Structure to design on (205 residues):
């Protein structure tokens, strides 16, 4: 009887997750996920939907304001948010660009993944219904200078699985997440960055 009750409770919980709106799923994600790691595949399309770039890599974040995106293919690049600044290291150019965190995040996709719960106030949120088996929410930046016209997030059983970003030039960036682990214990060193010796450092030093 106890196992049957447990199964019924699990089924009820899954049913709630299935029927939750995209906005509900985003709010649940923001409040229940403090840290995460995973992998991503990224594709960029021009306004005519022609594929112009493909890349992949790994990600990690710890709210609020700490994250690490590592692009492994086709060009190695590391983006690190240490809670105060965002560092972008382009290995091929041996160049580091640094910006203050508030300026770099703003109403951007990184704010939705690694920002605080207050970050949601920078967006107008709208349910987009179900597509490809996922619950979607659209986030429109309130700041028209953010560089993005809209951001869509798709949620499945494992949490966030897709992001679609449309920028001011009509380009669409699609992100697919896999192997996402929620709330693992992460080494703080993951979110620190020191420019390599000899690298050219530009920006808000």
């Amino acid at each position: 009887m106890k196992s049957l009750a447990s199964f019924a409770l699990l089924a009820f919980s899954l049913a709630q997750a299935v029927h939750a709106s995209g906005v509900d799923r985003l709010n649940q994600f923001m409040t229940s996920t403090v840290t995460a790691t995973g992998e991503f595949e990224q594709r960029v399309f021009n306004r005519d939907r022609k594929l112009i770039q493909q890349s992949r890599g790994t990600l990690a974040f710890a709210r609020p304001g700490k994250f690490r995106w590592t692009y492994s293919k086709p060009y190695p690049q590391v983006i690190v948010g240490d809670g105060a600044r965002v560092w972008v290291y382009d290995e091929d150019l041996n160049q580091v660009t640094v910006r203050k965190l508030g300026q770099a995040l703003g109403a951007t996709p990184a704010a939705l993944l690694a920002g605080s719960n207050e970050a949601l106030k920078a967006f107008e949120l709208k349910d987009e219904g179900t597509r490809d088996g996922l619950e979607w929410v659209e986030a429109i930046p309130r700041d028209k200078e953010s560089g993005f016209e809209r951001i869509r997030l798709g949620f499945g059983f494992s949490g966030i699985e897709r992001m679609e970003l449309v920028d001011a030039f009509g380009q669409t960036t699609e992100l697919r997440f896999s192997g996402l682990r929620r709330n693992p214990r992460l080494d703080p060193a993951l979110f620190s960055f020191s420019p390599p010796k000899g690298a050219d450092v530009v920006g808000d030093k």
User: Anything to note?
Assistant: Residues 1-19 have pLDDT under 50 and may be disordered.
